[in-house]
Every structure is written in C-alpha cells, then in structure tokens.
C-alpha cells in the first residue's frame, strides 16, 4: 500500500483551492471582475457539523503507532470556513492532557454545504497501568477559537506520555478532499 505524506496531501488541497477566487476573475485594472458579488463564508460552528469517528488504525501494542480520523460534515445552510488545527484533549477521569498540533501547515478553507473535512489524531500506545501512560477514556475536541466542544469515547488503549504528562500524540490540520 502506498502512503502519501500528510504535507503533500495538504499542499495539493491548497493548490486546488488557490485556483478558485470565487469571483470569476479580476479585470486587472481595479475593475469589478465579473460583476458577481462575493460574500465570505463565516467560521464553522461545531453545532452545525456532523461528526463521525473513523476509520481507526488502532495501535495493537505498547510502543506501536495508531491513527484516529475524525470527519466533519457541514450540515449548516451555507458554506463556512475553517483555519488552523482542532483543539484536542485526552481525558482519563479527572486527568486531562492537550494534544499538540502536528508539524503540517494549516490553511484556511471553505467548507461547502454537505462538504467534509477531516483531521487525524496520531498517537503512540502506552503500556496499560504504566507510570508513563494515560488510560484515556474520552477525547474532547473543539474548533479553533471556539468554546463549544464535542466528546467521543476512546477505546484504542492507553496513550504513552513524555515527561511532564505530555501525550505522545499529535493532531493534523483540517484537510479537505479534492472533491469538496
């Protein structure tokens, strides 16, 4: 199976979106282009997005890597925009740990009505009951700059911890398929 690096996929999505200016072009002389009025889509609200967890490539044993994909579908009445990384927190009882953003660059994207975007949580599985493991029960995430969150159960094993209780996990930026 061939795997395409996340940065290549993100770059392809940006190049695809960069070719669309939404106004039909510019006359180049300060004119109004096609004459169509463009309106910027507002930021996406979590309450207007459908959430689906999966597919999951769970880490089978301690030290193995796993990935959990979350798909968001715009169920609102209009397009909306996303930029940045989702805010992801792992929770084990009263203990929580924030997941750091991955190394990819996040771009602003418009999500059409019924369009989808995904993000992926990558993690290293920890040994059950070990001092440097977090027995994650739930994951909570929110959109950048918003206070509303969504929670889903975690059944993919403990997550390994680095020093200071930082999880060996990362979250990708929002990605959009070429068809949306």
Automatic annotation (TrEMBL):
Pfam families: DUF4232 (PF14016). Residues 44-174 form the DUF4232 domain. This is DUF4232 domain-containing protein.
